[in-house]
Specification:
single chain, alpha/beta, Mannitol-specific EII, Chain A, six-stranded mixed sheet, 5 helices, 6 strands, globular
Length: 154
C-alpha cells in the first residue's frame, strides 16, 4: 500500500513541542480527529491503552504509535518531528524525535499489518531517517516520507 494514500500532505507536524509521550499522543490524536471528524479524546485513550501494552518506540529515535479506531473507514497516518527528543520507553532506551502514527478501521486486517511492517522497515533505514530529521518544511517531510512510493512506481 502506498504511503501517499495514507499520509495526506497536511498530515505532517514539523516541530511538535512536547515534554511527554502523553503530549505527543494527544497532539497527534487531536490532529487526526479534526481531519477525520472523530473524537480526539477517544483516539487519545485508544493510543494510551496501546502504549500500556508495550511501547511503540521501536528504537533509533523512532516511535510508531498505532491503533484501531471506531468510526474510521480507511487507514490514516500522521508524522511528527519533535522539537526536542523525549523519553518514550524505547527498546534501546534512546529518546524519540520522529513519531509516525497509524490509525486503522476496526475491521482492518492485513493492510494495517503490511503498512506497520513498511513503516518499521523505513524506521530501520538510517539514511531515510536522517533525511526525515533534516527536513525543515512540512512539504519536504511529506515528500521524504512518501518518496519510496515514487521510486517503486517509476
Amino acid at each position: 500500500m502506498q504511503l501517499n494514500n495514507i499520509f495526506a500532505p497536511n498530515a505532517v507536524i514539523t516541530a511538535l513541542p512536547a515534554s511527554s509521550k502523553a503530549q505527543v499522543l494527544r497532539a497527534l490524536a487531536e490532529a487526526a480527529a479534526v481531519a477525520n471528524d472523530l473524537d480526539p479524546q477517544e483516539i487519545f485513550e485508544i493510543l494510551r491503552e496501546r502504549e500500556r501494552l508495550g511501547s511503540t518506540a521501536i528504537g533509533e529515535g523512532v516511535a510508531i504509535p498505532h491503533a484501531k479506531v471506531p468510526g474510521l473507514d480507511h487507514l490514516v497516518g500522521w508524522i511528527a518531528k519533535l522539537e526536542q527528543p523525549l523519553e518514550f520507553d524505547a527498546i534501546d532506551d534512546k529518546p524519540v524525535d520522529l513519531v509516525v502514527m497509524l490509525l486503522a478501521p476496526e475491521s482492518a486486517g492485513a493492510d494495517h499489518l503490511r503498512v506497520l511492517a513498511q513503516l518499521s522497515r523505513m524506521a530501520k533505514d538510517h539514511q531515510r531517517c536522517a533525511a526525515l530529521r533534516g527536513c525543515s518544511s512540512a512539504e519536504a517531510l511529506w515528500q521524504t516520507l512518501t518518496q519510496e512510493d515514487e521510486r517503486r512506481a517509476a
